[in-house]
Amino acid sequence: MLSLLYLMPTFWSGDAAVAYQLGFQDPATTTMEGIYLFNLHLLFVIISIVIVVGWLLFSVLTNFTEFDNSDVATFVHSNPVEIIWTTIPALILLSLASPSFSLLYSLDEISNPELTLKILGHQWYWSYEISDFNSCSESNQSLKYSSYMLTNEFLQENNSIGFFRVLETNKRVVLPTNTHLRLLITAVDVLHSWTIPSFGVKVDACPGRLNQANLFIKRFGVFFGQCSEICGVNHGFMPIVLLAMPSVQYHYLIMTNLHFN
Ligand code: CUA
């Protein structure tokens, strides 16, 4: 009986992907909230159109058959009908375009960031750099680390029950919440894509090109993502784990040891 539950599509989930999931993960940024609401708006319009068109098709098939033509229309042309069937779709398109454009332009907005995280895609792991704290570290070097996936064998050996298979990494990205952040994304070898569904962030990492994205995390938590650009055999095995913590704690962490784990 319990196993049947796993067959049910999951509509709501936390900050990691879930088996048979249909809906989005919980939004953690205003960006993702916007995307989420826009998706609901689109779904409403799409379902309404499907119902209206389905009803039209059904009524045409049942009312206007070859054998029963007692209900014959007496006109071959109608201006009002043409006006209606051009303006209504145009208005529907307008109602889709206006929230879509405002959302698109709001994603492009770059506000003055407090911190910059540089993200490098490799075959097949991610590495990260933070250079904002150079002057406070003794070595005066930027904070650099690579984050590799934890294998199933490792998780089993260490009895890591409750960990997500193929989603956990040895080191997590740590970022502060309620602060404007800048992401700089690039790749070292081939195309990758840095994605965290809860943030609504999916930015291609292109070799020889620096892509920029802004991020404002609204709540603390551990967020999971995966590479989203086919990049070779281990494409499915370069996950992203991000720990978002309140700015004060983050600042303390940076000042005390400059060490992430
Ligand atoms: Cu890296 Cu797919």
TrEMBL record:
Q: Does the keyword Mitochondrion apply?
A: yes
Transmembrane residues, as ranges?
A: 40-62, 83-105
Q: How is the cofactor bound?
A: Binds a copper A center.
> Chief subcellular site?
membrane
Which is one Pfam family of this protein?
COX2_TM
* Catalyzed reactions per annotation: 4 Fe(II)-[cytochrome c] + O2 + 8 H(+)(in) = 4 Fe(III)-[cytochrome c] + 2 H2O + 4 H(+)(out)
Q: Provide the Cytochrome oxidase subunit II transmembrane region profile domain boundaries.
A: 16-111
Q: Which cofactor does it need?
A: Cu cation
Q: Which GO terms describe its biological process?
A: ATP synthesis coupled electron transport
List UniProt keywords, sorted A-Z.
Copper, Electron transport, Membrane, Metal-binding, Mitochondrion, Mitochondrion inner membrane, Respiratory chain, Translocase, Transmembrane, Transmembrane helix, Transport
Q: Does the keyword Transmembrane apply?
A: yes
List the SUPFAM superfamilies hit by this protein, alphabetically: Cupredoxins, Cytochrome c oxidase subunit II-like, transmembrane region
Record's bilayer topology term = Multi-pass membrane protein
Enumerate the InterPro entries for this protein: CcO_II, CcO_II-like_C, CcO_II_C, Copper_CuA, Cupredoxin, Cyt_c_oxidase_su2_TM_dom, Cyt_c_oxidase_su2_TM_sf
Cellular component GO terms held in the UniProt record = mitochondrial inner membrane
GO terms of molecular function: copper ion binding; cytochrome-c oxidase activity
Ranges for domain Cytochrome oxidase subunit II copper A binding come to: 112-256
Q: Which PANTHER family is this protein grouped with? A: CYTOCHROME C OXIDASE SUBUNIT 2, CYTOCHROME C OXIDASE, SUBUNIT II
Instruction: Say what the protein does.
Output: Component of the cytochrome c oxidase, the last enzyme in the mitochondrial electron transport chain which drives oxidative phosphorylation. The respiratory chain contains 3 multisubunit complexes succinate dehydrogenase (complex II, CII), ubiquinol-cytochrome c oxidoreductase (cytochrome b-c1 complex, complex III, CIII) and cytochrome c oxidase (complex IV, CIV), that cooperate to transfer electrons derived from NADH and succinate to molecular oxygen, creating an electrochemical gradient over the inner membrane that drives transmembrane transport and the ATP synthase.
> What family does the database annotate?
Belongs to the cytochrome c oxidase subunit 2 family.
- What protein name applies here? Cytochrome c oxidase subunit 2
Native species = Halamphora calidilacuna
Q: What is the lineage of its organism?
A: Eukaryota, Sar, Stramenopiles, Ochrophyta, Bacillariophyta
